[in-house]
Amino acid sequence: MFWISKKTATYSEAWKNGFVDIHNHLLPGIDDGAKSVAQTEAMILGMQELGITEAVATPHTYPGLWQNTKQTIQTAYASVPKSFITSCSSEYLVDTSLVELAEKDTLLPLKGDCVLIEFAMMSAPVSGLMETLFTLKLKGYRLILAHPERYLYWEKNLKMFNPTSHALSKIPKTILTSDELERSQTNDDECYICDDGGCEYTF
Question: Is the pTM for the entire model greater than 0.70?
Fold first, then answer.
């Protein structure tokens, strides 16, 4: 009797043509991510070992917790290596202040019209969620939802995002950070989200 070993592909093998990380907390000192440029550089080395070749920095903009602005993000971005972190954006909490940023043209999209968003983790937004998302869509933004597996309060109500029943046909999306790639496992909710035709970015 003999055993046939099963080869396990590494991230660097899977990403041999390059991989751009668009959800991370690399910028130093402005959210719960890197605390210094030295820590940013160490995180970059770890990401490169995984095969990641480029990153768009996405610190939190979370009113009441991380009060980042376009200026604070760009100032932090000026302090980091540009050979790996090639541009800066943000992971925006969805609330009414997000519309205000869009009105003032002070959002930092990932690229073009793509904006990375998140919802509160512990409880569903009380009111105004769909109105905020709809307003952003009318302004031409494409919304990418970070870590949808965290929003368990919508586990029984995913149909609210179904493109056949709501105007927001491109929500939600799935974006995972490199460490979440290791931890995450596909579940029924994620399959539902991706099967409804509204998923453009899945990792």
Answer: yes
